[in-house]
């Protein structure tokens, strides 16, 4: 076989199944000590990765589980951790390794709950809740409960390690929007992440990926692989104005957009709406955004601080205050409108506000305003990355 032919069949070095081993080089808290949130800025070194991403894309982070929780589960099952068990893919491994790297060990699966209900000597309530008509009651009951709670509360439910991993799902990577541009940071990717920590049933719970980055990633590789978000890229024309709505960690892609447009010398106007609870302790990237604003690159910066006054102010209120100007950017200047962040409340409220602005300032009926917004979507001028 010729060397050329060998090169063609050689697998690419990195893939979803074999992510790139990034190195965490910065782990900095962005939120102040008085903040209700632990919001962090992470920088991961990608030197030598030979891959790429665009601003607007995400990177999948392949976290490992909390070793302390792994040990508790092994102990609760009366196992040693050295038992051989199958993995979702690949050769068998030890029980400890599988719980650490291969399986989701926090959220109880329906299979696991059913097995507990069948085997535990005192789980009648759980059996009652597992009927399909009581889905809502089951969700309420399960809030803040994890696999470990069921194992410690029902010691009579015994499982062999191999059987136990069969009741779990594969540990999935977590997608984070990239908060940096390769044009500005050629060998790095930045993330902004809220570290998930809360107490329930007398136990501290932690988000798998956020606590991995915040607490456990200092001296181990951080496996990452790009995930393309075709629907969320910058306008092709660098002169097109953009309106960006990104409260909290939803600001990630917009930091990247600004870096990208600045590095590329784009002339398009940039308007950012940012929101969080308190200005003094929750203003992520304050200095960077203020600097962009000062040099005239960030045309407008409007912030909403929900807890700094008696009545709550959110980004949609700031949009409404600037309705006439937003309409002008959208209609006369053909701006693109981007929204990133919480799908359940914020994105819905912003969408309703956008339709109201089009109706009131475009002199349109409800139906005409809705059609206008749908047209923006079809023309890929209204783009959302919501979760």
Compact description:
The chain is α/β, with parallel strands linked by helices. The chain folds into 3 domains: 10-60 and 178-225, Elongation Factor Tu (Ef-tu), domain 3 (Beta Barrel), CATH 2.40.30; 67-165, NADPH-cytochrome p450 Reductase, Chain A, domain 3; 230-386, 3-Layer(aba) Sandwich (Rossmann fold), CATH 3.40.50.80. The protein contains 16 helices and 15 strands.
Q: Can you walk through the features of this model?
A:
- The chain contains 16 helices and 15 strands.
- It has a six-stranded antiparallel beta sheet with strand order 6-3-10-1-2-7, covered by helices on one side.
- The protein has three domains: 10-60 and 178-225, Translation factors (Elongation Factor Tu (Ef-tu), domain 3); 67-165, NADPH-cytochrome p450 Reductase, Chain A, domain 3, CATH 1.20.990; 230-386, 3-Layer(aba) Sandwich (Rossmann fold).
- The termini are far apart.
- By secondary structure, it is an alpha/beta fold.
- Residues 1-7 have low confidence and may be disordered.
